[in-house]
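[worker-b] picked up task from shared queue
[worker-b] task type: protein-ligand structure
[worker-b] ligand name resolved to zinc ion; SMILES cross-checked against name lookup, match
[worker-b] sequence length check passed
[worker-b] input payload:
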Amino acid sequence: MNRKVLLKNTLLMIALLALGFVSVDSQTTYAATNRVYPTACKKTKAGFIKPSIISRWHEECRLPVVHMGTDIGIPKKTPLYAVCTGKVVSQKYGNNGGYQMTISCDDDQTSAFYAHMFERTSLKQGDKVLAGQKIGISGDTGTAKGIPHLHFGRMKKDTNGDLQYFNPEPELKEWKCKG
Ligand SMILES: [Zn+2]
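[worker-b] inference finished, payload out:
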């Protein structure tokens, strides 16, 4: 690839990232062990492009508290997907997290936490979800006001049965976009 083509491709990539994201939907079904990226991704001929991470694990975001998750920068109303097959363990409004929900995964005792959603999800506590199922849309509720993103958290039960947060970013790098 010569320099001119490389430059053109780089500029195209930057333009695609700046444009926001299209809704990617399909009838794909997933086995319980599959994991799916929690947001819609940008679909290109070369494959999916994941949204930018705007704040990392333990990086200060807008509050002077330890940041227990990863912030994924996405426009309001971007589809959000269940990362695993499991069930809704809570969905509520909180002053910090805004409209938020937690899903427990059937296969490994982990949970996934979604915050700053646009509106209350239609799913109720106890509802079953399939990996890749649309669970709501993103927003900027709670402390995200003005900076739309998904705050995504991951938890795993410790030996006492208490949920402990862990850094979701290594998994987010691995998980495939829905498509
Ligand atoms: Zn956050």
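[worker-b] attaching auto-annotations
[worker-b] The longest strand covers residues 86-94.
[worker-b] releasing lock
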